[in-house]
Amino acid sequence: MPTFVTPEAHGDERGALLSYVEAQRAGLRRALLGLTEEQAASHPSASGLSLSGLAKHSAEVEFNWLRLAQQQTNERQQSAESWGDSFRLVGTETIPEILAFWDGVTAELEKFIRELPDLDATFPLPETPWFPKDARVSMRWLLLHLVEEFARHAGHADIIRESLDGATAFELVARARAEDGAPAS
């Protein structure tokens, strides 16, 4: 799981943006390392956020933006009534299932972005109270928005994880590297 991105190492803007998305995505996922389903679903603060809920929400958000960019139907789209379910595991959902789903979304997003002629291609946004009427955004905007989304939730995840067992982001990076067989520094 990447922690530091050197844009020049990725050859171009597209590679750099994808690397920044992945670094923030990895920070969020790393917060789950070594936790039980019960720990990951707990709410150790006044917030209703949990680590498993943040992972599910982030995977679904990425999937939603991918489907919007592809101009395809999102079969997992939450309704106004079920929106809260995107922040918690429901029914028989498990962390491994959510992470496997997210892995698939990640691979599909990367393939889609790499196959685009350029990042200036745009797609329409749905009409909502928070988007202007007839708004369009570029693929570049999409990637920057995913960095923003994941970074925000990775920060939430850091606080939740530290509240659960005291593990800091630095310790989790070292643990992830040790599990991958990479040096900790």
Automatic annotation (TrEMBL):
Entries under Pfam families matching the protein: MST (PF04978)
SUPFAM superfamilies reported for this sequence: DinB/YfiT-like putative metalloenzymes (SSF109854)
InterPro entries from the UniProt entry: DinB/YfiT-like, MST-like
Protein name: Mini-circle protein
Organism: Streptomyces globosus
